[in-house]
Structure formats: C-alpha cells, structure tokens
Design a protein that fits this description.
Strand content: over 45%
Helix content: under 10%
Largest sheet: 7 strands, mixed
Shape: globular
Structural class: mainly beta
Radius of gyration: 13 Å
Number of strands: 11
Order of helices and strands: EEEEEEEEEEE
C-alpha cells in the first residue's frame, strides 16, 4: 500500500485547506483510512478515520471543523479543514490498513501503512 499526501501550506486563522492523499488501498474490499497529525514536541495523534463503508469518526478537537472523505474512482482520500486554528499547526499524515478485525480507528496502532506527511501551518 502506497500513500502520498499533498495540499499542505500556510493559512491564516479561520482559513481553510484541503489535504489529499493518493492511496492504493482502494483495491481491498474492506479497508480504513486515517488522518493523523504531529506538532513539534508532541506525540502523533489521530484526527479522523473513514472506512470502506463510508463510516467516519473524528477526534473531539476537530469535530465540526474537519471533514474526511474519499473518492474511490480517483483512489484519493481527502481532509477538508475549515475554521483553522493555530493549534492545528502540525505535520499531517495519512495512513491506511485493511485489518478485517478493525472497523475504523484513530489509533496509531491500527495502521501499518503511512505517508510521509504534509505540513500545515496556521499563523497570522
């Protein structure tokens, strides 16, 4: 499984960005995809998850502001980020796996496949 993120950049507080992740996991009948982030000096944390049934789940810190989605025809995962805050500044990673025992997860341990990340900076 290969994952390549894009779409990061710098934005002012209150602004929006859309991250993309080209993923080769869509060939599996069951899979789940996640977005994670890691700020300097902090541990990597889960942001959102979507699975092959289009079930989604979000971390409390981003609920109502971020939307995870997928386009199977384009083999692409998205993260629409609105109302961005300085505390959203981090390296953002997409991750994927197809463990049939897991429905969807924002836990790092649930994933074996990771992208290299894309930087998001929110600053005035």
């Amino acid at each position: 499984v290969q994952l390549v993120e894009s779409g990061g950049g710098s934005v002012q507080p209150g602004g929006s960005l859309r991250l993309s992740c080209a993923a080769s996991v869509f060939t599996y009948s069951r899979y789940y995809l996640g977005w994670f982030r890691q700020a300097p000096g902090k541990e990597r944390e889960g942001v959102a998850c979507i699975n092959s049934d289009d079930y989604t789940t979000y971390a409390e810190a981003v609920k109502g502001r971020f939307t995870i989605s997928q386009d199977n025809a384009k083999n692409t995962l998205y993260l629409q980020m609105n109302s961005l805050k300085p505390e959203d500044t981090a390296m953002y990673y997409c991750a994927a796996d197809h463990d049939s025992r897991i429905w969807c997860s924002t836990s790092l341990r649930a994933y074996n496949y990771w992208g290299r990340g894309t930087q998001v900076t929110v600053s005035s």
